[in-house]
Amino acid sequence: MPGTRRRQSRRIDSLLLETVRESVLAGSGPVTPSSVAAAVQASGRLLGTAGALEAAESINAELNGLGPLQQLAEDIRVTDIFVNGPDSVWLDRGFGFERSSVHFDSEHQVRSLAARLVSAGGRRLDDGSPCVDVRLKGGYRVHAVLAPISTAGTLLSIRIRREEVFTLAELRENGMFAELVETVLRAIMAQRLSFLISGATGSGKTTLLSTMLGLSHPAERLVLIEDAAELNPVHPHVVTLESRHGNLEGGGALDLGDLVRQALRMRPDRLIVGECRGAEVRELLTALNTGHTGGGGTIHANTAEAVPARLIALGALAGLNAETVRLQVSSALDVVIHVERTTDGRKVASIGVLTDTSDGQIVVSALRWSPSGVTQGPAWPELATRLSMKTPLNADWAPVQELAGAIPQTGAGRES
User: What is the pLDDT of residue 217?
Assistant: First the structure.
């Protein structure tokens, strides 16, 4: 029966894996594809040329790569892989979650893979440390959770950093935004406006930020602050600082706030916090208020309108009251770019301007995307004015008020 042959094949593969693992780990050198291939050949199995090659690739993935998940990671469209159980593997290729046909033989195999990946990142995954986040060579960010914290068994979440960086034109061609929005994004960078890119997890914030940073003038020095290095802008002068977890005794930790303070001593032309999610927002706002224009980062928010409240909440973690945050934000940030994941892929849903009102700080829409096209919001005149300012590096930038006539008006008084 086909099912019997598949079960038998898995048992044979498991036995071969153990044989090869013992063989290569007994050696003094590193585990390489060639040493794995030699061990497969030395096992005495009559697999044939194609079978031996397939076995070597599979076993090398088990020992060095992502195991059964390696084939998913090799698809350049995959950005995230999730393991909810041996028979529940999901992936994201930019259009939401898809169930994969990949599966594990047992919960033990999932836990073993999780433990090996975490160990490769210099940390441990066990009952004393059941929730761990690590970054691995190859651009993988791995988060693992063990039972009983997870009621379903071992959970794995893998974010894949792709080395390829898209141009704005490529993102436009892929449907992320219209030509008018591309022009505005270029102007935001050219005029050194400070900005935040908001959106939910997996909405494309990091992809858009990397692309926009690549538009910075070649003479500028970019200092990137990240919890896990994911930004890789195409630019000649980039410095990245990455936070560090404490050791087993809790010492040696460096958080994002510490790194922002260090970065200010490195003469950044643009200071970027890859993801604002804690007290480091205080240091970032301070930097943007003391001459470090043109910087910013990303922030998790369901809508652009939620960004002011998110900033107040993060400021509270740093001991700032709401009024202090409002005053800091008013002079620090110019633009909020909100991205969303839709059924048609990731989209720049709106571009807004932070505005003070009698009821507090709000984000007023300047441009908004909908399936019917891009419309102009109440804040467009203000944004167009900011984008038309001349700077020494970009004195020849054409005024963007010319765009106003090409963008339909949103309904009177409507805001994003």
Answer: 95
Write the single-letter amino acid at 363: V
Report which secondary-structure segment, H or E, holds 98: strand 97-99
Task: Report d(CA 347, CA 349) in Å as an integer.
Answer: 6
DSSP per-residue letters across 230-261: ----S-SSEEEEE-B---TTS-S-B-HHHHHH
Is pLDDT of 105 > 90? no
Q: Note whether 345 and 77 are within 8 A (CB).
A: no
Q: Which long-range contacts (CB under 8 A, 24 or more apart) does 102-106 make?
A: 102/68, 102/69, 102/71, 102/72, 103/68, 104/67, 104/68, 105/10, 105/14
DSSP per-residue letters across 164-200: ----HHHHHHTTSS-HHHHHHHHHHHHTT--EEEEE-
At 4, the pLDDT band (50, 70, 90 cuts) reads: very low
Q: What is the mean pLDDT of the chain?
A: 82
By CB neighbour count within 10 A (0-12 exposed, 13-18 middle, 19+ buried), where does 43 fall?
middle
How far is 385 from 304, CA to CA, in rounded Å?
21
Estimate the crossing angle of helix 307-317 against helix 280-288, to 10 degrees: 110
End-to-end Cα, the chain, rounded Å: 59
Please tell me the pTM assigned to this model.
0.74
| Type of residue found at 324 | T
Separate counts of helices (H) and strands (E) for the chain: 13, 15
pLDDT value, residue 391: 39
68-87 confidence digits (pLDDT tens): 898 898 888 898 999 999 99
Q: Which two tokens stand for residue 168?
A: 């704005």
Q: What is the DSSP string of 255-293?
A: -HHHHHHHHGGG--SEEEEEEE-STHHHHHHHHHTTT-T
Cis peptide before 218 (omega within 30 of 0): no
Dihedral sign computed on CA atoms, order 225, 228, 233, 239: positive
Q: Which two tokens stand for residue 94?
A: 């930019």
| Residue 308 neighbours by CB distance under 10 Å | 23
104-139: b (≥16 Cβ within 10 Å) or e? beeeebbbebbbbbbeebebebeeeeeebbbbeeeb
